[in-house]
């Protein structure tokens, strides 16, 4: 496996900084004679203007910025051949090299991949012309080929310079840009054919079309970005709101300050460890924060009673799962957290409360939080007793595994705790004041 | 030389709401004046034209290099570079396409005779003809320009915008931002 990776990076190191520039120089040299005839100068001039314009008229999509250069280059290939495309690529590279901090290796690799793309696409175009396929169809095929070759070679460069996987880079690029990219290419194809039919002044309406598109995209993605920001704001507000809730729950029960935060923390660690998606992980964290919300409905005398609880009082305490469930159900928010709140005291063997669920009837979220809850209850210091040592708490969990706790999850949890550096573990367990601090932050 | 472009740039800058409030500080402005002086000398005394123009070009380059932190100046450098390649590969003079130049209202005899201080005639043996003065530009002042001149004109336009305190940053345009901050 390791060997394979090494060979791959060696191949990349051969292609990107060496192969690309050599190919660029060869193609470049073979096309310079095409630039010399008198009748070509006007075209070169026009494409210089177009290239400068398109280099600095970007089309912004959500994550990336596309320039129109590929469309310009593509139209050059369709109308006149590779020599115009390469000219445009050279003008762009030269301009950017002067404008930006110049990195020769990257610049050469970049122009290499672009020039190879142009050359290959031109070759394909000639082949299709030879087969006398209708320009309508062949333009589409060539546009697709341009896009494909370009992102594959470009991703090779990126994966070499930033040490990412080639295939995943291709996939990412394809995911982010394909449609806009293809739209531009198809527009360029249509534009070129119009210029061919009606002459150079067709460029003016085409430019107007591109500029308008750029504006439309700009507006569209601007509002999308704003929406995105709003969603983030609401999320962060929610988060602060929840933290406040958790703090107020913990504040009522003075024996367990910071408890909900810690349970949420461990729940998140387990969820991450078993490879849940980031949304699920977040959900479990919030579930942890709210799991004891029902304690709001338990009288102070019982909740804060020193000494042993009578069976009746214990029954009342047990009610907190159902009370919490009702509160959240009525709130109509966070419905996805209901199982965590109701079932975090269920046991695998069916001896838990409130519903006596068995095994897989217990929702995953509740099974995860049950372990986190039990662990924190054992190790945290209480005013009337010192917390158990971590090792003993883990032994308890091991003992309960299969009867009280889900076996697999318990295994994961024990591993997480054992891997963790001692100081970090201690600092999390001692985190009593944190909830108060966050409460204050949330209020301010 | 670029009077019409510069005037046009000023008009655009005025429309954009630009005013001259403070002058951008250029380093080693003297180099620019030396270069202009040398060019005037070469026009007065054509026999030494080639040498004087070459030296004048070097002074411009020095001025550009000292001020390369401005983006506009770097656009100038692209133009300077392209023109310099054309001039150096053709014995110190910029070849000009006679067919295009005939449209101009100037006397072309010095160019044809080889006594013009700046230009020579474009022939079959000219190197890199596509970088020389081959494009006829009819208005506002008729002239024959090279590809490098496009960049010089663009640079002049951007520089005037900066003078008028409304700089445009091409790099920020590329990143999708509208206008530049002053730098």
UniProtKB/TrEMBL annotation, chain A:
Domain HD-GYP: 234-429
SUPFAM superfamilies for this protein: HD-domain/PDEase-like
Keywords linked to the UniProt accession: Membrane, Transmembrane, Transmembrane helix
Keyword Ligase (UniProt): no
Membrane-spanning parts: 12-29, 41-59, 71-90, 140-162
Keyword Transmembrane helix: yes
PANTHER family given in the database record: CYCLIC DI-GMP PHOSPHODIESTERASE PA4108-RELATED
Name this protein carries in UniProt: HD-GYP domain-containing protein
The organism of origin for this protein: Brevibacillus choshinensis
UniProtKB/TrEMBL annotation, chain B:
UniProt keyword list: Membrane, Transmembrane, Transmembrane helix
Membrane as UniProt keyword: yes
Spans through the membrane: 44-66, 73-89, 140-160
Entry protein name: DUF5317 domain-containing protein
InterPro entries, alphabetized: DUF5317
Keyword Transmembrane: yes
